[in-house]
Design goal:
The protein folds into 2 domains: about 140 residues, 3-Layer(aba) Sandwich (Rossmann fold), CATH 3.40.50; about 60 residues, no CATH class. The longest helix has 16 residues. β9 and β10 form a beta hairpin. The chain is built from 7 helices and 10 strands. It is of the alpha/beta class.
Length: about 220
């Protein structure tokens, strides 16, 4: 089966510093891949490159056969990314953020139920009309996660998604990821949480000084 995301000869330099050594990576349907490594190992650089937010120094990335840079719109329709520090629009409430995402991805008919269920499940419903700058760090991270989950995707990338979550919210995320796996999407998630590695990983990749060590 063809991978949902394929990266070939991907590398990234910051000046003369090599943050990501040339590497190949394939993410497959129905598989959760966990990315581990010390701070500064290159995990966020890899995820930013795979998401299209950071242009690699060299290499190619495709999502369901669409080149991430030559066919950006089609590739990103299939790709969702949750950074470790989500960014928000200052003029939109939390609910309006989810509505904006739904408009961008053409899910208007299902928006009310999908967004409402997600916000209730993750404990944000009572604060849905607040602006994200009024949220705690954990609430902002949950909103970033919901902005990914509210839309369709075949590949989901997450950078330390439980770093600011309480235990209950972390368990809810685990259950959501298990459902995403059953639906046939591919997930790549970086984490320092050994419980996530043990409970979710179909495959673990360790990163050390920009080099991927796949197991």
């Amino acid at each position: 089966m063809e991978p949902l995301l394929q990266a070939n000869n991907l590398c990234r330099f910051y000046g003369k510093f090599q943050a990501l050594a040339p590497t190949d990576l394939a993410l497959h349907a129905g598989e959760i891949t966990i990315l581990t490594g010390l701070n500064g190992a290159g995990k966020s650089t890899l995820l930013l490159c795979l998401s299209g937010l950071l242009r690699p120094s060299d290499g190619k990335i495709s999502v369901e056969g669409f080149d991430l840079y030559q066919e950006e719109v089609e590739a990103k329709r299939r790709l969702a990314f949750v950074p470790d520090v989500p960014r928000f629009y200052t003029e939109l409430t939390a609910w309006e953020h989810l509505y904006f995402i739904s408009l961008a991805y053409g899910i208007n008919a299902e928006f009310e139920k999908t967004a409402g269920d997600l916000m209730r499940t993750f404990g944000l419903w009572e604060a849905k009309d607040l602006y994200p700058h009024n949220y705690s760090r954990g609430m902002r991270l949950k909103l970033g996660i919901l902005m990914a989950l509210v839309r369709p995707f075949s590949v989901l990338l997450l950078d330390e998604p439980t770093s600011a979550l309480d235990m209950e919210s972390s368990q809810l995320l685990i259950e959501s990821l298990e459902g995403i796996r059953r639906r046939g999407a591919a997930v790549l998630m970086s984490t320092h949480n050994p419980a996530l590695v043990k409970g979710l990983a179909d495959r673990t990749i360790h990163m050390h000084h920009g080099v991927l060590e796949q197991s």
